[in-house]
Structure formats: structure tokens, C-alpha cells
Specification:
about 350 residues; Vacuolar protein sorting protein 11 C-terminal domain-containing protein; mainly alpha; CHCR_PEP5_VPS11; two-stranded antiparallel sheet; about 65% helix; single chain; zinc-finger; VPS11_C
């Protein structure tokens, strides 16, 4: 009977101890020991206890802010074993944890309440919220943070540079170097048309034409180069068109003697029935056995692909023109997103010009 009772007691289930139940034992004057205790729990425990990681983060940040106290308070309490820099590194190491257990939203709120900017940025970047990272630095008026965020994540989200330009233009101080760097990235990625850039910078009373002189000069030079290329292409098309017109006129008014002896497809001697086209391929008239043409007897198989390519180019030019209009429209809408009046004005302008099809 005694043995049975002992066995029953040995099999009794013991609930795991919650480390949070021991907080009151440390009091306000033993925060360093409390940190050591929870660090031991986190490092040695296989199971994650709810709230432990969040509480340890709160301890790091509150202790870091309280590490630099007035001389009277420092004398009243024993010296801290954790320097502010050590506590900051411990907090960042905790946020870097890849294990499941840390409540991201709770940790983000704690970092925001404690003004722990490095932690806020780290948590947002881990979630891929680069726009929120940018807005965080904007909210604390950190120009360096804003620019570094754009440099770091601008390739993944180019619209960060557009938001950066809006913010720089709205600042009381004109950050010339930063504005010019932002314009360089906007120019390279073709994020905004020049007119919209000027409209954005016009919000800053300190902005001058000198600020965008280089940007506008490069843009105009590119446009002039493109215009010259277009003129050259247009002249080439005119010459080609004139040559085609003369050839068509010759076909209408002049008889053409067919002297081809061999089929342009198989190379064998032509026999009846045969089909002769008015075109020529590489200077040789196009003549075929009817059997070599297959089902399509109305189009030269040698010159047909080139004709189809020309037709496709014409259709592509028409569609690309419409695509450029649509792309510029949405760019201007994005650039004017801060002002409903400007967005409405953009829509009205495009409708009035009949640019929607």
C-alpha cells in the first residue's frame, strides 16, 4: 500500500512555473538582478513563456533610459552592472531573434513608447514595411534616416524617392544636397515627369531654379537627342515611302517581264502551274511552283514575314503611345496624392485633352 501511494505521488503532474510570478521578489532596486534572472530563463528554458520576451525587452529599454540618472539617485542606488550601450545591444539582439515567441506588435509598441528608434526600424524592416520605416524617420525629422532608408530600400521600392522629394520640399529648411541626390534617383528611374518635379519643389519658398538647373538641363539634352533621332528616322521612312511609291507606280504603268527559271522555294526548274509575285527577294523576282506555296497562294512566303513585321511595328507604335499616356497619368496621380484638388485637376486635364481611349 505504501509503495502504491509512493508511485501515485511520483506520477503526479506538476504545472510549469511561470517566471512572471517572481517579479515582485526583486523590488525596484534590483532591476539588474531581475534582468539577469530573465536572461537565464530565456537562455535555459526550452519552452517560451508568454510575455517573458516582451517583459525582458521592456526591462532593457527602461533600464537603458534610467542608466543615466542624477548624481543623488546614483549614490542612493548601487551601481548598475549594465551600461546603456550594453542594454541597447541586448535589446537589439533580442529583436533579432528568429525563434517564434516575441510578439512583434507588442515589441514595436514598446520600442515606440520608449523612443527606441533602432528597434522600431529593425522590426519594420523585418516585416518589409519600408514605407513605414521612411515615415518613422520623417516623423522624428531625421534627414539622415530618411536618406539612408531611400538608399537602402530604394531599389526594392522606388516610390520611396518620390515620398522623400515630397517631404524635403515640405521642410522649412532647404536641404540642397539631399534634394539633388533625390532628383538623381528620380531621373535615373524616370519616376516623375519634370513638370511634376517642379510643382513639388515649388512648395518650398527657398527653392530656386538653380536647384533643378542640372536636372532640367540633362532632361532637355535627352529630349533634344531623342528629337534628332526621331527626325533621322522620319527622314528615313520618308525616303523609303517615296521609293515604295515609285515602285508602285512602276508596277501600275510598266510591264514586268518574268524571266525566272527556277522556283524561289525549292530551286528546281519552274513548270506549270506556277505563281509569280511582283516583289523580289534579295534582288531576285519571287516565282514559285503552285505546289510549293501550299494553301497561301496570295502572299509571298519570302517577303511576307517582312510585311508582317512592318504591320506589327505600326500597331506597336500606336499601342506604345497609349501606354505612355497611361503611365504618365498614373505617375502624376501618385505625385499629387497629397492634394485631392491636384489629383482632380490631373484627371480633368487628361479628359479635356481626349487622351483616354
Amino acid at each position: 500500500a505504501g509503495a502504491g501511494a509512493g508511485a501515485g505521488a511520483g506520477n503526479e503532474r506538476i504545472d510549469p512555473i511561470n517566471p512572471m510570478d517572481f517579479i515582485h521578489l526583486f523590488g525596484d532596486s534590483h532591476e539588474d538582478e531581475l534582468i539577469d534572472f530573465f536572461e537565464f530563463v530565456v537562455s535555459s528554458s526550452k519552452a517560451e513563456h508568454p510575455g517573458v520576451l516582451e517583459f525582458l525587452l521592456e526591462l532593457y529599454l527602461s533600464r537603458q533610459r534610467g542608466a543615466v540618472v542624477s548624481p543623488s539617485k546614483r549614490e542612493a542606488s548601487h551601481s548598475s552592472s549594465h551600461s546603456p550601450e550594453q542594454l541597447k545591444e541586448k535589446a537589439l539582439a533580442l529583436l533579432r531573434r528568429t525563434k517564434v515567441g516575441l510578439d512583434t506588435e507588442a515589441a514595436l509598441l514598446t520600442c515606440q513608447l520608449r523612443n527606441f528608434h533602432e528597434g522600431v526600424v529593425m522590426l519594420l524592416e523585418k516585416q518589409g514595411l519600408f514605407k513605414d520605416v521612411l515615415e518613422h524617420f520623417m516623423s522624428i525629422k531625421s534627414v539622415d534616416g530618411v536618406m539612408e532608408t531611400c538608399r537602402k530600400h530604394g531599389d526594392k521600392d522606388p516610390q520611396l524617392w518620390v515620398s522623400c522629394l515630397h517631404w524635403l520640399a515640405a521642410c522649412d529648411t532647404l536641404y540642397t544636397k539631399e534634394v539633388q541626390e533625390t532628383l538623381t534617383h528620380i531621373e535615373e528611374r524616370e519616376l516623375l515627369p519634370p513638370l511634376v518635379v517642379i510643382q513639388i519643389l515649388a512648395q518650398n519658398n527657398s527653392a530656386t531654379l538653380e536647384l533643378v538647373k542640372g536636372y532640367m538641363t540633362r532632361y532637355l539634352q535627352r529630349e533634344m537627342g531623342q528629337i534628332q533621332e526621331d527626325k533621322t528616322a522620319i527622314q528615313g521612312f520618308r525616303d523609303e515611302t517615296e521609293s515604295m511609291r515609285k515602285e508602285i507606280e512602276n508596277l501600275r504603268t510598266t510591264a514586268r517581264i518574268v524571266q525566272s527559271r527556277n522556283c524561289s522555294a525549292c530551286g528546281q526548274t519552274l513548270d506549270l502551274p506556277s505563281v509569280h509575285f511582283m516583289c523580289s527577294f534579295q534582288g531576285t523576282p519571287c516565282s514559285f511552283h503552285q505546289r510549293c506555296l501550299g494553301e497561301n497562294e496570295n502572299e509571298c512566303p519570302l517577303c511576307g514575314p517582312e510585311h508582317a513585321r512592318v504591320k506589327e511595328m505600326a500597331a506597336s507604335l500606336r499601342s506604345s503611345k497609349n501606354a505612355d499616356v497611361h503611365e504618365n497619368f498614373f505617375r502624376q496621380l501618385e505625385a499629387n496624392k497629397a492634394s485631392e484638388a491636384q489629383r482632380f485637376s490631373t484627371v480633368a486635364e487628361y479628359f479635356s485633352r481626349g487622351l483616354f481611349s
